[in-house]
Every structure is written in structure tokens, then in C-alpha cells.
Design a protein that fits this description.
Blueprint lengths: L7 E2 L1 E5 L9 E5 H12 L6 H20 L12 E2 L16 H10 L2 E5 L10 E2 L9 E2 H9 L4 H9 L3 E5 L3 E2 L17 H16 L15 H13 L10 H14 L30 H16 L14 H13 L10 H16 L22 H14 L16 H13 L10 H15 L17
Helix pairs in contact: 1-3, 2-3, 2-4, 2-5, 6-8, 9-11, 12-14
Length: about 475
């Protein structure tokens, strides 16, 4: 699913035939793939600027396939085919021309995009003699180069003046975008926000899908309703949860309605990639996303002796980096000190395991892994209301609320009052950060300092 900036993959997996054929898959390095295609599509005797323009088009074409997960979102186990009926020619083991190899080594990190958009342009092309198309004519580039056109000018001749050449320094392994776990009510994060934004755009074409008014990264009843309707329309089990098949169907339909894999693409704007929940947290970051991660890490660190303890500061400092690295070592992940998606997933899973076995005799309870907001009914709401009412004895600005278990307007007002007093965003929503602040203030008043669950664990796991 389109949830980040384009990148240059280290490898490309090519299906040596039509998509549904019983052909072999081969995996080659990205530069070797470009050299193979270019040596099959182009003549090494062409002017260098024509070769350069064509290589840019070949690079952008395959990057579009990989970025949109055009084949993988439909259940295939490859990135692109070697069939010119669908993609661009690839002959495994073919001869590579020396000058094309040299130019590819220079040019393969550069791709074409429309100015103001993010995704690599779907640079349709044809040879211009035996076949013609709306995109680039390979033989036509020869005459333009002989007329003195630069590679960019040649590409602009075919794709329009509103394109640019972009060099990517982001070279990494291509990994599936599916987060590896089912998303459902209570989840918070970048993956949820991606789903919400994608569904909101799809609903323009399929109005039966309800708009998610606040694409805030919180998987609530509104999000579940939108997912369920999407599933009903596209013949998936209407669970309201996002499993792997639903994730990739949303990705495929989003790509289709925006025409991202077509020359006349609607385009993916940078604003559509902006997230209140960054997919990766790293040293130097700060804010509620870091604070939330630190909360989960602090709890896990209290129960796993090999995970370094941490303070919840909201700043990704050296202590946070060291703690993340120790968590990664404990759970068999590369010890980078950066909280990427896999680290976050494993951290979240470890926290859930602790939550399920939480002792009942602690002064305050761990965050219940459910975003509490107006309209929610849950035992955790009753606990929250009890904490707020107790704190109201010490702070007149926080109103007491009845412990009904229903999160109504009065509870929202009490939460907002607390958030204002403690320097939190006064949105009336209780996630991990606000829960920790409320539970911590309650614990300090009721039980004394140092009694929070991650300061006084019920047991320790040695790993």
C-alpha cells in the first residue's frame, strides 16, 4: 500500500511470462534488471541522450510497478513480468551491451515523476514503428537526440512539460507493506491512518463506503464500518477487520481509482502521505508518537530483564536508542536502535502479552489497548472515570464524573480539563499517552511515587 516515499529496491523479482502463466520467477539486482531490459529494448548505437531518456523511462516504469504493488496486491509473488504485452521485455541470461551497462550504473537511481506528485510516473512506451502508444516512442527519441534535445527535453516531448527527473538515495530491500497482523478496533498508528486515507479516496468512486471524518490513525467503529462496507462491495468476508487480503485489495482499488499505474495518473500528492503517526521513529524525533512508543517500551522493560529501563520523555534520546537496541537484541531483530515497523510490531505484541497477564493487585492498570473516546462503552472507561474523579479532589479544574463505563460528553470534558492541566493536546481522546498521564497522577496521589506498573512490575521475565 502506498504509505511512504518511493525507493530503489535492491532486487526485482520477474515472472518470465504472462501473469497467470506457469512460468519461472527469477530475482536479480535492480541495476541488472534495468541493464537486461535496456539491452533488449534499445540499440547500443543510438545517440547517448536517446539511450539516457529511454533508461529513465525503463527505471520509472518498473518503480511504478513496485511502488503500487501492482502485482503483489493481487496475490502474485513477483514484482513485474517479462512480457511486453503487460510490461517490458526481460530475457534471463541475455547479453548486456557495455555502453548500456555503463549508463545504467550512472542512471538507475533516477526516475520520472510529475511535478508536485510523489509516485514514479507510469512511463508507458513502445517502439514507435511496429507499435505505437500514447507514451514514448523509442525510435522517436533517436531523432530528438540528433536534433540536440537533452534527455529531460526528450521525456517532456512525450510526457509533458510538468515532469521532472528525481534521484533517490533511498536504496533498500522491498518488503511487503502489509503490517503482518490483523488491524481492528483499538489499533492506533500509521498503518491505520493509511487505511483510512485510502478508503476516503475510494469512497469518491464508491459512495456507499462511509467517509471517515477524522483520518486520525485510530481504528474506531467508524473505520470498522468503512472497512466492512468495502469488504461487502468487493466480495470479501465483511469482518470490519483488515487482514492481508483486505489490505491488498484496498491498495489495488486505491491504485486503480487514482490511475496511479496509468500514464494519465491522478497523482499522489505529498499531503496524502503526511501522517500524524510516523511509520519510523528514530533518534532526534520528539512528540506524542515517541512518548507513546516509550510507554510501551517502559512496560516491556519492566518485565524483561534484558530490556533497558527507560523514562517517558517524548524525546528520542540516547537512552531511548539504547533501550530500543536492547529490545531488538532480546527479540532477535537487527539492533539498529531505530523503531521501524517490525520493531514496533514486536514491541506491541510483547506489550499485549504483558497486558493479558497483568496482576490485579497493582495500584493502577496498564493502558487497556483501546482508544477511549466519546461514544465508547467499556470497563476501561469506568476505571478512567474513577481515576478522574479521585484527581478532582486535588484539582478543582477537573470535574468529577460518574463511573458508568460510558464515555459521554462529561467524561470528555473531564479528560480535556486534565489534558490542559498537564500540557497534553486537549482533544478529549485517551490513548496510551493520556492514559499514562492520568494513571500516573492517580498513582502518585493514591499509592505514592514509583508505583506505576512499569516502575513496580508484578514479575520479571528473563530473556
Amino acid at each position: 500500500m502506498l504509505s511512504g516515499e518511493p525507493f530503489i529496491p535492491q532486487t526485482v523479482t520477474v515472472h518470465l511470462g504472462a501473469p497467470d502463466s506457469n512460468a519461472e520467477n527469477v530475482t536479480v539486482s535492480f541495476p541488472d534488471y534495468i541493464k537486461n531490459v535496456a539491452s533488449g529494448e534499445l540499440y547500443p548505437t543510438w545517440p547517448e541522450n536517446a539511450l539516457r531518456a529511454n533508461i529513465h523511462a525503463i527505471v520509472s516504469f518498473v518503480l511504478n510497478r513496485i511502488y503500487t504493488e501492482w502485482y503483489r496486491s493481487r496475490g502474485y509473488d513477483f514484482d513485474i513480468t517479462g512480457s511486453t504485452q503487460y510490461d517490458q521485455v526481460f530475457v534471463y541470461g541475455r547479453e548486456i551491451f557495455d555502453n548500456i551497462s555503463r549508463l545504467t550504473d550512472e542512471l538507475y537511481p533516477v526516475y520520472v515523476r510529475r511535478i508536485g506528485t510523489v509516485e514514479p510516473l507510469f512511463t508507458a512506451f513502445c517502439n514507435g514503428t511496429t507499435s505505437t502508444c500514447a507514451g514514448l516512442s523509442q525510435w522517436g527519441t533517436v531523432g530528438l537526440a540528433e536534433d540536440g534535445k537533452t534527455p529531460l527535453e526528450i521525456l517532456q516531448y512525450y510526457y509533458g512539460d510538468d515532469i521532472e527527473l528525481v534521484r533517490s538515495a533511498n536504496i533498500r530491500s522491498a518488503t511487503p507493506t502489509y503490517p503482518g497482523r490483523v488491524l481492528n478496533i483499538g489499533e492506533v498508528g500509521a498503518d491505520v491512518q493509511t487505511i483510512q486515507l485510502q478508503l476516503n479516496r475510494i469512497s469518491n468512486n464508491f459512495p456507499a463506503i462511509p467517509k471517515i471524518a477524522e483520518a486520525d490513525g485510530i481504528y474506531d467503529d467508524r473505520t470498522a464500518d468503512a472497512v466492512r462496507t468495502f469488504q461487502e462491495i468487493f466480495n470479501l468476508a465483511p469482518t470490519g477487520e483488515v487482514n492481508e487480503s483486505t489490505w491488498y485489495e484496498i491498495s489495488y482499488i486505491f491504485t486503480s481509482v487514482k490511475r496511479l499505474a496509468e500514464l494519465n495518473s491522478e497523482g499522489l500528492r505529498q499531503s496524502e502521505l503526511e501522517r500524524s503517526f510516523p511509520a519510523t521513529l528514530q533518534p532526534g524525533d520528539s512528540g506524542n508518537a515517541v512518548r507513546s512508543m516509550q510507554y510501551y517500551l517502559a512496560v516491556v522493560g519492566a518485565y524483561y530483564a534484558s530490556v533497558l529501563p527507560i523514562s517517558i520523555t517524548g524525546t528520542y534520546d540516547d537512552a531511548t536508542t539504547a533501550s530500543v537496541r536492547s529490545f531488538q537484541q532480546t527479540f532477535g531483530l537487527p539492533p539498529t536502535g531505530i523503531t521501524d515497523r517490525q520493531t514496533w510490531n514486536d514491541l506491541y505484541a510483547a506489550y499485549l502479552g504483558i497486558l493479558e497477564s497483568q496482576p490485579n493487585d497493582t495500584c493502577v492498570q496498564l493502558y487497556p489497548d483501546l482508544v477511549l473516546r466519546e461514544g465508547v462503552t467499556d470497563p476501561a472507561v469506568r476505571t478512567l472515570q474513577q481515576y478522574l474523579t479521585y484527581l478532582s479532589q486535588f484539582d478543582a479544574s477537573i470535574p468529577a464524573v460518574s463511573d458508568t463505563g460510558y464515555f459521554g460528553p462529561l467524561t470528555r470534558s473531564a479528560v480535556q480539563a486534565f489534558q490542559r492541566q498537564y500540557g497534553l493536546t486537549p482533544n478529549g481522546i485517551v490513548g496510551a499517552v493520556t492514559w499514562d498521564a492520568i494513571a500516573g497522577a492517580y498513582s502518585d496521589r493514591r499509592c505514592g511515587a514509583g508505583k506505576r506498573p512499569y516502575q513496580s512490575p508484578g514479575y520479571t521475565i528473563t530473556a
